[in-house]
Design goal:
Oligomer: heterodimer
Number of helices of chain B: 3
Distance between the termini of chain B: 32 Å
CATH architecture of the largest domain in chain A: 2-Layer Sandwich
Helix content of chain A: 55-70%
Shape of chain A: rod-shaped
Number of strands of chain A: 17
Structural class of chain A: alpha+beta
Helix content of chain B: 10-25%
Amino acid sequence: MASNKSVARFLLGPVPAVIISLLLLFTLFLLTSAAQHAKLSGEFYSVLLGVNILGILTLGVLIVANLVRLYRQLRAKVLGSRLTLRMVAMFVLLVVAPLTVVYHFSVQFLSKGVDSWFDVKIDKAVDDALLLGATTLEVIKQESVERLVVGARRLESVNNRFEVIPLLNELGDDGGYLELSLYTQEGRFIASSYQNEQFRIPRIPDEQILSRISRGREYVGLEPISGGGQQLRIAVPVRSSSIGEPDRILQALQLLPSRYAELANSVESVSAQYKQMIFFRGPLKFSLILTLTLVALVATLLAVWAAIFISRRMTAPLRDLAEGTRAVAAGDYRKELPVNSTDELGVLVSSFNKMTKQINKAQSRARASQREAENQRTYLETVLGHLSSGVMSFDDNHSLRTSNAAVTQILGVEFDGGLSADRIRTDHPSLEPLFSVIENSMSQRLKEWQNEVTVFGLQGRQVLILRGTRLTGRGGYVVVFDDITDLIQAQRDAAWGEVARRLAHEIKNPLTPIQLSTERIRRKYLNLLPEKDRETLDRATRTIVHQVQAMEEMVNAFSSYAQPVRMEVNEINLNQLVADVSELHRSDDQAIAFRYEFANDLPLITADTSRLRQVLNNLLINAQDALVDTVDPSIVLSTRCVQSDNNYYVELKVEDNGPGIPGDMMDKLFEPYVTSKEKGTGLGLAIVKRIVEEHGGAIWVKSRLGRGTIITVRLPVSTHNAGGVADITLARAITARKRG
Amino acid sequence: MQPEFVRADFVVTEVKARLDRNDLYVSTRIQLDLSEQAELAVENGVPLVVLTEFVLMRDGFLWDETLLESRIRQQLRYHSLADRYVVENLEGGEMNTYSSVSKALKSMGVLRSRLSPLPAEVDIDRPEYTLEVRSRLDINRLPAALRPLAFFSPSWRLSSDWTKWQVTNQ
């Protein structure tokens, strides 16, 4: 395939055309010479003409092939083809137009020139010369006839063959005849006399001579002979002198005297040549015009081919430059164009090559810098990606530019770049506290800020601490935040653990001696005291022992609240658990009406059953306690599945129609030792809140004085069962285990 | 393949070919009719050369074998001073004059010639030979000025077809 292309390229290239052109010019030269020189062989002329026509056809084919190639390039919109076509058209026009004019005038000139060669005066002179020659010859002919007639008379009386021959010899010698022969009237040979052996075979008179003699007239004619000479053929009748003897014919061949022969030849030759010339006038014009046409055709074809070739050569650097420019535009800076000339185009191509080299170098440097920047960026991204802190950057328009993996991990949401903080707030209501802080800080153009916010996301309630910085230089902001939920929990656990340890140490330890001492006083002195004092001591020691036991219970309860607990999680049907736990309370206090409003499609949650049972117990005890003085007490237990910000939760509401909670208690309701009841440790709701938070949930209270209280517990759904709710990962459960 | 001509003005009407010892004796009768253009050229002093070609062939299994090729050229021209048409055999130099062009052409058509030497493989006792004869106007012998026109004009393409004649040995 490649070799075929290279062959085609070679055939359409300059070499074949130049060879054909040179051959054509040479053969044209020879053809012109052959037309002018009659001596050149006719076969040679035929060959030349054939070669010329073949060469012209080949050149024509080459040109057509070149034009077809150009047309295809034009259709394929190859660079430079339009310019080449334009230049070809221009060159062809420039060459063909004057060539046509020259050809036209040359043909006219040739026609008129050839016609002017033939002059009427010359024509007449030649005719006159011929007539003069003929007249002169006529005199010689007449003399020759008269002399032969004399000889014929001598033969009239001689009939005997043996007498005739000597007489013929005598007459022949006397007259200097080449041949002297006697024939019958019918042209049959009788006898002859000749000078040399060449004439041994007699030249029998033709019908014209016989016919003339038969009419009694003489014949004399001039005949050219081999070697350029002339001879006279003279025939006269030989009348018979004897009755009964037939007439005969005496024919003599006589060489024309050399002086006359030369003159006759000259006149004949010139006359013949001039006649030929006149006859050749038409063919000569044709011949010259043919030659001229061939020359013009060759010149035109050569010009057209040269136009194509030159146009190609001239546009080649421009085409290369255009291709090079296109390559540079496409980002290929390694393109180097061939420099084939030292002219302005060559300089241009060299400059282009220099430019591309410099661009390539600059590009390489830029690429290296870019690679370095990419490496640094990758490094930074790797570092940021492995940071446990969420990092977000915003531009001056408060649109999110970048966020690391920790952001998604902490917030459970993957953000698209370009979203504004406002838009994120709208799209993700659960993250509203976080992004409103960020938006506000950016709006105030704070240089640095630090906040702690709580969001309720995929992983439940999360406490985030965030730090923001306004960037100098490129502008924008960077916000770094951490999920300190676990940290706070750990700190709280540690603090309460320390409190519990101290309480045990500082309070619980003295209780045992107090109780032992009280019991000892009671055992030792109760029977010794009088009845009246005995009763007082009994009551006092009993009170001390009871209070010590109460204090012990209180310290134990507080320890259980403060000490971290390892959770045992499993999948729980909350409806079932609520039903089970509430059933115990309902049987204890049948005065209270229990109502259930369970959602049917409630998904399973992952939780510690015993701790969740404790939550329910505490909540139901609180509700029952609140309904002691209520007429028609009732407790409504309802569950439902809610979706917030693509996260799913299970909500449990415990609603009573008790007196409600005073407003001053609402803020510290879930803190330890806050209670409105006469009995109790004050840790119930605190423990509930802690367990709920340990499960990543949230709890809040809505109370209406005199109308009742609604406590809502929201727990995240970490897995999803059937029922039309989205699948949820076990991440929450795993987190919960870790916390446990 | 025989070339096609616009006018086959030359017709080979009769050829007698006889082998005798080492020679081939040929006598022909060829009808030579000139076109108007050619005759006009003769009258204007242009010499015409008529070429008669002979090819002795032996029948072969696949193709015929060429044994001998020979040609006779005769020139016809007009002698204005003598008012005669001169026929000259360019091979032998024999020259005859005629009062009219038709007589001259008739004379030219009658050829008696001995073609020799025959190749050694010719066996005269086995008459299995064919003589092909063609007569044509030799354009290449025309004057230079006339040649281009003669190449392109059908009036000048005067030729007979190739004719085949059996060679005898008696």
